[in-house]
Amino acid sequence: MTMIVLFWLVVGSIIPGPGKAAASLRIDFYAETSCPQAEQIIFTQVQKILQNPEFNNAPAELLRLFFHDCFIKGCDASVGRPVPEKDSIPNKKLKGFEIIDMIKEALEKECPGIVSCSDILALAARDAISLSGGPFYPLYTGRRDSKLSFNESLNEIPRPFGKIDDNLKLFTDRGFTVRETVALLGGHSIGFISCQFIQPPNDTYLPDDFKEEIRQKCQNMNNNFSMMDPVLIFSVEISFRNSLLRIADQKKGPPLFRHGVNGQRRNSCRRRRIRVRRRFHFSKRPHHSLD
């Protein structure tokens, strides 16, 4: 299910935290290496890829891939290692690996052995956001790739049908507040949800016209269903009232959101508070960090 945790998580994952690994990260890390053109090569490759209709969902795929990588032990490209992380159930349907491979190949031709896969993924996700109409943000680089793959991916990635308290704990364990987590859950504005996650459409919570729309779209279970506003993808000035928080008010959010944020009063209050604060948008920096 391509449900993307958006800009805050990306920003949170690129702000260096404490520790030796974080201390080595800096803006324009590769400018002082034998591959000063690394970021430009990545940007050019992402630009070419996005022009290919075959990769029309690449921004969502890269951002989701980046999230799954960073959420488990930090941004270290461990998500690409088959056992156990890449092959775990939450990661089995991740896409975008071939895009990273294409970019890596282009970099290796120019400056072999210099740019880490973890930095390629971070930069590619950033550039895909920017080229999709979103903000271009400074990115700390200088990561090194993990030689390990982690079992935590089996239990630590938020589940689409997970209880809201369980998903909240996954985020609070990583330094997110409840308020930030609710905002993140409501920040989905790019990508699609698979029909398998919204079948059968017999939820009494849903409006009849929306249930009929789902039935028509999901006659083929291999279809994807977009409940996002494509016009609003990564608008810099977008507020959370223009995302799934607004869709949830119309009772048209996906299951995780309907039965999670909408279904619990304490988060509903926070949701409303977030929604009405018009200046609460992507420029607000989180207080936490993921290395």
Automatic annotation (TrEMBL):
<dbReference type="InterPro" id="IPR002016">
    <property type="entry name" value="Haem_peroxidase"/>
</dbReference>
<dbReference type="GO" id="GO:0046872">
    <property type="term" value="F:metal ion binding"/>
</dbReference>
<feature type="signal peptide">
    <location>
        <begin position="1"/>
        <end position="21"/>
    </location>
</feature>
<keyword id="KW-0560">Oxidoreductase</keyword>
<keyword id="KW-0408">Iron</keyword>
<keyword id="KW-0376">Hydrogen peroxide</keyword>
<comment type="similarity">
    <text>Belongs to the peroxidase family. Ascorbate peroxidase subfamily.</text>
</comment>
<keyword id="KW-0964">Secreted</keyword>
<feature type="binding site">
    <location>
        <position position="85"/>
    </location>
    <ligand>
        <name>Ca(2+) 1</name>
    </ligand>
</feature>
<feature type="binding site">
    <location>
        <position position="76"/>
    </location>
    <ligand>
        <name>Ca(2+) 1</name>
    </ligand>
</feature>
<feature type="binding site">
    <location>
        <position position="74"/>
    </location>
    <ligand>
        <name>Ca(2+) 1</name>
    </ligand>
</feature>
<feature type="site" description="Transition state stabilizer">
    <location>
        <position position="64"/>
    </location>
</feature>
<keyword id="KW-1015">Disulfide bond</keyword>
<feature type="active site" description="Proton acceptor">
    <location>
        <position position="68"/>
    </location>
</feature>
<comment type="function">
    <text>Removal of H(2)O(2), oxidation of toxic reductants, biosynthesis and degradation of lignin, suberization, auxin catabolism, response to environmental stresses such as wounding, pathogen attack and oxidative stress.</text>
</comment>
<dbReference type="GO" id="GO:0140825">
    <property type="term" value="F:lactoperoxidase activity"/>
</dbReference>
<dbReference type="InterPro" id="IPR019793">
    <property type="entry name" value="Peroxidases_heam-ligand_BS"/>
</dbReference>
<feature type="disulfide bond">
    <location>
        <begin position="195"/>
        <end position="218"/>
    </location>
</feature>
<dbReference type="GO" id="GO:0042744">
    <property type="term" value="P:hydrogen peroxide catabolic process"/>
</dbReference>
<feature type="disulfide bond">
    <location>
        <begin position="70"/>
        <end position="75"/>
    </location>
</feature>
<dbReference type="GO" id="GO:0005576">
    <property type="term" value="C:extracellular region"/>
</dbReference>
<keyword id="KW-0479">Metal-binding</keyword>
<feature type="binding site">
    <location>
        <position position="229"/>
    </location>
    <ligand>
        <name>Ca(2+) 2</name>
    </ligand>
</feature>
<feature type="binding site">
    <location>
        <position position="69"/>
    </location>
    <ligand>
        <name>Ca(2+) 1</name>
    </ligand>
</feature>
<dbReference type="GO" id="GO:0006979">
    <property type="term" value="P:response to oxidative stress"/>
</dbReference>
<dbReference type="GO" id="GO:0020037">
    <property type="term" value="F:heme binding"/>
</dbReference>
<feature type="binding site">
    <location>
        <position position="158"/>
    </location>
    <ligand>
        <name>substrate</name>
    </ligand>
</feature>
<keyword id="KW-0575">Peroxidase</keyword>
<feature type="disulfide bond">
    <location>
        <begin position="35"/>
        <end position="111"/>
    </location>
</feature>
<feature type="domain" description="Plant heme peroxidase family profile">
    <location>
        <begin position="24"/>
        <end position="253"/>
    </location>
</feature>
<keyword id="KW-0732">Signal</keyword>
<comment type="similarity">
    <text>Belongs to the peroxidase family. Classical plant (class III) peroxidase subfamily.</text>
</comment>
<dbReference type="Pfam" id="PF00141">
    <property type="entry name" value="peroxidase"/>
</dbReference>
<dbReference type="InterPro" id="IPR010255">
    <property type="entry name" value="Haem_peroxidase_sf"/>
</dbReference>
<protein>
    <recommendedName>
        <fullName>Peroxidase</fullName>
        <ecNumber>1.11.1.7</ecNumber>
    </recommendedName>
</protein>
<dbReference type="InterPro" id="IPR000823">
    <property type="entry name" value="Peroxidase_pln"/>
</dbReference>
<keyword id="KW-0106">Calcium</keyword>
<keyword id="KW-0349">Heme</keyword>
<feature type="binding site" description="axial binding residue">
    <location>
        <position position="188"/>
    </location>
    <ligand>
        <name>heme b</name>
    </ligand>
</feature>
<feature type="binding site">
    <location>
        <position position="78"/>
    </location>
    <ligand>
        <name>Ca(2+) 1</name>
    </ligand>
</feature>
